[in-house]
Amino acid sequence: MNKTVQIVIVEDDKDLANGLCKALKDGGRSIVSCEDLRSARDQIFLTSPTLVILDINLPDGSGLDLVKEIRAKNLPTSVILLSANDTDSDVVKGLEMGADDYVTKPFSLSVLRARVNTQLRKRETEVSGDAMVIDKYSFDFERMIFTVDETEVSLSKIEQRLLKMLVSNRGITLSRDDLVDRLWTDGAEFVDENALSVAVKRLRDKLEAKDYIKTVYGLGYMWVKNNE
Predict the structure, then answer these.
(1) With 123 labelled, which of 117, 143, 154, 163 sits at a CA distance of 20 to 30 A?
(2) Is 181 exposed, middle or buried (0-12, 13-18, 19+ CB in 10 A)?
């Protein structure tokens, strides 16, 4: 990325915050740590950072409120939530409020690093406006042009959204429940349990991507990492 990556860590556990700062330190990154919502607001709304890693339970309130404020102001900032609350309803609530990812405590720093790198790659692609090129594929989500070996493929809206989620999280298994919740956001109370399986099969067939879109049995789906 041409521009310095700015990461704001909002975590009141000083030891964890220090560990995160060390784990994510990189030559092209500027990292700032905040212990509460008040200082986080000052930092975030002043600098509009690339990424915010945000604990939900903070001394002066809930991190979910800050997520809503970030989205209300339309800041081009990615948000990863941290929380000890690990139920499906907690995760869904955080994502529905506008978080880009949700990591439950305790977690491995290497896993969090991978999640951070995924969000930074996604942000870089979105900011550049360029097509995402992976081996024989070119995916231009801005202009909705998708090609396989330079041959254009027509994708439905659901297939486009599914593809974007998969390639933006390469190497990470996305659960079936999470995919359903984020793909069908029209407020429908019931989505046939086979709808996701059908969408994945159609996408895999259209892109000839059986070696890329992997089924992780009992969990969900993943776009595998290759030598890109």
Answers:
(1) 154
(2) middle
Entry pTM: 0.56
Query: Is residue 16 a contact partner of residue 9, using CB atoms and an 8 Å limit?
Result: no
CA distances from 148 to 62, 145, 203 (A): 44, 10, 12
- Count the residues in the chain: 228
Backbone torsions φ then ψ of 201, nearest 5 degrees: -60, -45
Distances (CA, A) of 100 to 88, 135, 136, 181: 15, 26, 27, 13
Lowest-pLDDT range, 100-104, 149-153, 189-193, 206-210? 189-193
What domains does the chain contain, in order, with CATH numbers? 5-125 (3.40.50.2300), 130-223 (1.10.10.10)
User: Residues of 113-140 as b/e, b for ≥16 C-beta within 10 angstroms?
Assistant: eebbebbbbbbbbbeeeebbeeeebbbe
